[in-house]
Specification:
This protein is of the alpha/beta class. About 45% of the residues lie in helices and about 10% in strands. α4 packs antiparallel against α5 and α5 packs parallel to α9.
Length: about 250
């Protein structure tokens, strides 16, 4: 939307959509919105009621439903829903850009040429990023590692990565002693080089799992915690994922 306006962001940096509650200021933003873009109810469950209240007058774009994305089943979930972490695959990002560009141009035809020009620049940036990440991660493809929760499938599929287990299937669930013992066995059996935590959650479990093992601990951030919101945020977050994986798995 550069040169036209600036979108309002509902989820602040450092927050997780799994447990977020709307603030009064968020409700005011929604009350004024003509267009709301969300990933889907599986991720932003906190938006269900507020969006129902404005659906009669505001356009709501649900990316997982409205965009033809390459979706992956959500591991460990019994309801057959798709993994909502769709933004971690640059090909999905390209499809989202094209769809949102079309939505904006229809809603605001006077600025349609501006949206199209912005889209072309953004798609070119995504192409460059995709190539950079592919080159960065090529030396560590297939190296085994453990993640905090199973939220990286899109990134892993895109770049040929090999996580062998997740500490928890959902951030809201604390794994029990039996699950932790299973993870320790997986670390030993696979020679997992790293256990990755996330900045929104305590690293205590990772430290317990790696005690006495030759396994490093590092951080992956799929939400861009600490990154200033704006047009560069997604690119910085994606580069950060690649850098963390490369550094830990390669031992650098």
């Amino acid at each position: 939307m550069a040169g036209v306006g600036e979108p309002a962001l509902l989820l602040p940096a450092g927050a997780t959509p799994h447990s977020y509650s709307l603030r009064p200021s968020d409700a005011r933003k929604l009350a004024r919105a003509d267009l709301v873009i969300r990933v889907g109810p599986a991720l932003e469950s906190f938006l269900a009621k507020p969006l129902a209240n404005i659906a009669h007058r505001a356009r709501v774009v649900t990316l997982m439903r409205d965009v033809h994305l390459s979706l992956i089943p959500h591991s460990g979930h019994d309801d057959q829903e798709s993994d909502p972490h769709i933004w971690l695959d640059p090909e999905n990002a390209r499809r989202i850009v094209r769809h949102v560009t079309a939505v904006l141009a229809r809603a605001d035809p006077d600025n349609g040429s501006r949206y199209t020009a912005n889209s072309k620049k953004l798609l070119a940036r995504i192409d460059r990023l995709d190539g950079f990440i592919s080159t960065t991660l090529k030396p560590v493809r297939r190296m085994p590692y453990i993640v905090f929760h199973d939220g990286y499938q899109y990134f892993e599929r895109r770049y040929g990565l090999n996580h062998v287990a997740a500490i928890t299937l959902s951030p809201e669930r604390t794994p029990g002693a039996r699950r932790l013992q299973q993870i320790r066995g997986i670390i030993r059996a696979n020679g997992a080089r790293c256990v990755f935590t996330e900045p929104q959650f305590s690293p205590t479990l990772a430290h317990a799992l790696t005690r006495g093992a030759n396994t490093r601990i590092a951080t992956l951030d799929p939400l861009g915690d600490g990154i200033r919101p704006g047009p560069d945020a997604w690119f910085k977050m994606m580069r950060g994922l690649a850098a963390s994986l490369r550094a830990c798995l390669a031992g650098g």
